[in-house]
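User
Here is a favour to ask of a fellow structure person. I am asking you to supply a protein in sequence and structure-token form. Please set it down just below, with no commentary around it:

Assistant
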Amino acid sequence: MSDTDLLIIGAGPAGCAAAVMAASLGLRSVLVERAAQPCGSLRGIPVLDNVLGFAGGPAYAAAVEGQLGRTALCSLRLGTEVVGLEATDRQVTARLADGTALTAGHAVVATGVRPATLAETPWARADFPVRPLRGAPAAAALLVLGADRPLGTFLRAHPGHAVRLTVLHPAADEYKTHEVRPDPRVTLVPTAAARLRRAPDGRVSAAVTTTSGEELTLTADAAVLNAGSRPAALPGLRPGPDGYCPPELQHPRVTVAGDLRSARAQRIATATGTGAQAALDAYYAGI
């Protein structure tokens, strides 16, 4: 006997959409989230420009949390970490960090992505810890390592901020720069390698080799990391060569939803759609 019809791992937009859709179909679900509240990442996105009905992440997260609270068929387990997943022909079992387990007829895994670390950014090195863009200090000039899309969100959230951003980015990030290129506060530097040092007064300098071979020395008040994300895959999933977990590689009783599916699927709107579709797929599979 399983603990629930549908086990959902990860309470971001995809996981929450799966829980709401499952309830609308009469399915019981357990929604497991390691953080203390659902939609934690959404709460740090002040401006949304590609989600219907919401202009900011905090309002969206509050609405989702309220709807989950009204969804009687969903049991929300916050502060609970899943450390492994096993699927058989009969059911799915999730092993929890506290040594217990949950079972279900089907599972939706929506653990998303995590920010890339400096150690995972091979073209950049620093002799000091570099904080993420989301924690950017108040400064007149920033060196930004990477042109990932949170940079556009940062600029839209601070339209009157006079900060100057020198964005060092590898060739692989070129397609991401179109969103921020028109902003006069941004200087883009295609970068093959960068080594950052911090002076005793706290300012930062970077020895940069551009993709065209030019050697530059750049300075700023501080540096922030914006080098993309990495998949937060669970043990027991079947990853592709890039570490992401395409749905077609998984066991028939396990569906991957949201950002974990692909590096090119990282949008809030697509996450909610794939979460809802995952619950529908489980329903039609006859769990």
